[in-house]
Amino acid sequence: MVDNEENQKVKAVSDFLHNSCRIRPSYRLSFANFFSGVSYPITRLDGTKCKLFSMSTGSVAEFYIEPMLSCIGDADVMYHYSNELAIPEGHTPPIQLPTAYENHVNVYEIVDSHLPGYVYLKLRYKLSRDMHKNDYIRAEYVGSSHAMLNNQLHFVNKHNIEIHGPAYMFVGYSLPKFLRKPGCMIDTVPCMHCFVWPPQAIDWLKRHRSHVWPDSATVDCVVSKGCDLVGVAHRDCRDNEWMSKHQWRLSFSRAEVLLLNSWIPEQQIICHMLRVYAKSEKLVGNAICKADTLSN
Fold it and tell me: pTM here?
């Protein structure tokens, strides 16, 4: 009898969640589609001309449910450049790249720092495209072993934006026309792309999955997307003059989007609720559960 009552309650909650959610409105879908695979020519702060590749991340790309609460309905866009890429330390650089990449590409090697998930980037190779074979010829770069890439050189410009840590927030007329709505803001995060799944996250592939999620096909898809590196230092290193400018954090935003998109609406709603709770004042001053213990 009790089990029957509990089952009815669970079914009632499930029906409520299913009926209360819907596919996100067109402007959210338009945003995600607009920034998916978009590339256009830019001039970087150092004067280098290349193309910018963008990718929609954050709640707009991860959740396909509505309603979304404004406190986590963020619009994030990560972007990387067509004249550079990263490879794990000790890996051989690729000889073939997407056609949109430049004829000359700098390849940076990912070097571990003393903190897990935080690395440095050292220029290791320079690639030049063979115009006859459409392959790249590798030239090993010989430089100082201490010459690491400055993470502050990755911003495009500083006009019509607000700076928020490693991100730039675009506002007002710097947005595409269909996104110029009251209160609409976009956080953009410059990064460097790595086509290879990094050895620092190899344990994720070997993790025991008692509920067979994600399945092998989803895991293969996630791994095939590689990872990104975001120019931000660990909080314990931000007061250090050198490390604050040269540390990079491994980012798996591409993986998070793929994994969350594979969930059914009810699962997305629960995750959405947890994020709201994590960002609310309910966790402030709680000695048992701190806000920084809940993460993607």
Answer: 0.78
